[in-house]
From TrEMBL:
An example Gene Ontology CC term for this record: periplasmic side of cell outer membrane
Signal peptide (residue range): none
Cited Pfam families: LppC
One GO BP annotation of this record: peptidoglycan biosynthetic process
Keyword Translocase: no
Keywords from the UniProt entry: Lipoprotein, Membrane
GO-annotated molecular function: enzyme regulator activity
Protein name: Putative lipoprotein
SUPFAM superfamilies according to UniProt: Periplasmic binding protein-like I
Length: 73
């Protein structure tokens, strides 16, 4: 995200995710197991109608971050 350099990077990702999430809220409410892959993680709606975010697992290998394979929750 070159547009999001510095301390505002998290806000940039959150804004992009909100933009993509808004038109799909009805779908997420109707299908509770559905998710959206956003810039800030995997997003879903819980029974209390709050957005939940799940981050991918990763580890450092030789000083570089390596994403671990996805696993079922």
């Amino acid at each position: 995200w070159p547009q999001a350099a510095g301390s505002l990077g998290r806000l940039y990702a959150m804004g992009i995710d909100a933009y993509h999430l808004a038109p799909r809220l009805a779908q997420l409410k109707a299908m509770p197991d559905s998710r959206i892959d956003g810039l800030s993680g995997s997003l879903s709606i819980n029974p209390g109608r709050r957005v939940e975010r799940q981050l991918p697992w990763a580890e450092f290998v030789d000083g570089k971050i390596q994403r671990l394979p996805d696993t079922a929750p």
